[in-house]
Write a structure and sequence with these properties.
Blueprint: H1 3-17, H2 23-50, E1 55-56, H3 65-81, H4 84-90, E2 99-100, H5 102-126, H6 135-148
Parallel strand pairs: 1-2
Helix pairs in contact: 2-5, 2-6, 3-5, 4-5, 5-6
Length: 149
């Protein structure tokens, strides 16, 4: 990850939830985004195929109300930080049987942003006074997301 992106991600976590993260945290964060985007796209592929389409549209992705709200919050935070371009470079597009529409591909960084806000805020729910997430916090947060997404 380029140094400029690292600083933007660090700032994002400070603004979103008052957290200080380091390079190891950003590696875990990247793994989280990769896994959750892949999960959403796989489910979107299933929805597209169920509707006899070979192209995943944005409405095929299972975006619950809470994630939609976090995506909105991300847009507000992004106005201060300018993280969307870094997320665009970071957000994976795994190879699936169905293709992504241009609209779906364009929406992925915003979805990653919403997931990021949700992740940052999950740390504070687990431990309200937390400043520096440790491995246990990351694992617990991932477990929560894996239950729901």
């Amino acid at each position: 990850m380029p140094v400029a992106h690292v600083e933007k991600f660090k700032r994002f976590f400070r603004v979103a939830a008052g957290l200080d993260v380091d390079k190891n945290d950003l590696k875990r964060y990247s793994e989280f985004i990769n896994a959750k985007i892949a999960d959403l796209l796989i489910r979107g592929q299933g929805n597209a195929k169920a509707n006899r389409r070979d192209i995943i549209q944005p409405f095929d992705l299972p975006i619950p109300k809470g994630l939609q709200e976090r995506m909105h919050e991300f847009r507000e935070i992004d106005e201060q930080i300018g993280l969307k371009s870094a997320l665009d470079a970071l957000t994976p597009t795994p190879e699936l049987d169905a293709a992504y529409s241009e609209e779906t591909d364009a929406k992925l960084p915003e979805i990653a942003g919403g997931l990021s806000v949700g992740l940052a805020r999950t740390f504070k729910i687990i431990e309200p006074e937390l400043k520096n997430p440790q491995t246990l916090h990351w694992e617990r947060s991932f477990q929560i997301f894996n239950l729901l997404l």
